[in-house]
Amino acid sequence: MTRNGWPVTFSIGLITHETIPESAADMIDQADSLMYSIRNSHKNDTLHRVKRIEPIDKVL
Questions:
Q1: pTM flag (> 0.90)
Q2: Distance CA 34, CA 30 (A)
């Protein structure tokens, strides 16, 4: 790509769920949001988040 003068960047959002997400669309939306967060701040990077399980006492 560099040899041809084509500017190529990458921004990757990764999400790990401790439990099964509500839907595949929900999981993709979360990863997409992370990817756009990288794109809007700086490019050529990755961002990974873990979707943690909330303790039951905080839910009630």
A1: no
A2: 6
Q: Which segments within 1-60 are labelled E, that is strand?
A: 11-17, 45-51
Burial class (CB in 10 A: 0-12, 13-18, 19+), 18: exposed
Q: Within its chain, how far is the Cα of 60 from the centroid?
A: 28
Domain assignment present for 5: no
pLDDT tens track, the chain, 60 positions: 678 888 888 899 999 999 888 899 999 999 999 999 998 988 889 999 999 877 666 655
Structure tokens at 9: 């960047």
Q: How many domains does the chain have?
A: 1
Listed in sequence order, the residues at least 6 apart from 31 whose beta carbon sits closer than 8 Å to its beta carbon are 13, 14, 15
